[in-house]
Amino acid sequence: ERITAREAAEWLEERNLVFPEGSMKAHHIYSSNTHYWWRLTGKLGSPLYKALFALCAFIEGAIMNFAGGESGSEGFFRKILRIRREIPALSRGECKYTAINCSDEMIFVVLRSHKGSHVVPVVSFNPSRSRFTLNLPAEEMGIDPESTCIVYDAFNDRVLEGKDGKTMLSGEELENLELEMAPYGVAALMINKIKD
What we know:
This protein is an alpha+beta fold. Helix content is 27%, strand content 28%.
């Protein structure tokens, strides 16, 4: 049976309730054990495998990869790990799995926060191009509806534009942020408040 990205986020949120405070987690898709169980060898380097790796790297905890699992996709893996290392909220920040609503249930999206900075990892598990709306919790991020923000996608190295093509977005616009992603696409949205 297939689960949605939203259901996976809900499961991860619930899973955190049973771990003792301060527990460390390690996430992986493929290990020496699963190598024999799942026969994923043919999937290594596929768009789905890369999306799963990005999800594991952008949620809380350590990331683990089977030796050779990056074969043929070394540039993608380096980029994901570099972004995780350079953005403290992705490696040390709080992770809220269900803080953001998305109009597409196959888009995995979480809110990562650390010392007042906020990053929204977005991973598409759609096999085709998708358009969707994110409802970012502006108030929870300390952003008033009238505040001005810039949303920078660190993975795709671009500044997001609003409906009218402007790059300065209001807090209100963050609450209904429209995006389009390629199949199994990845984004790491850094929310930068410019002024109140």
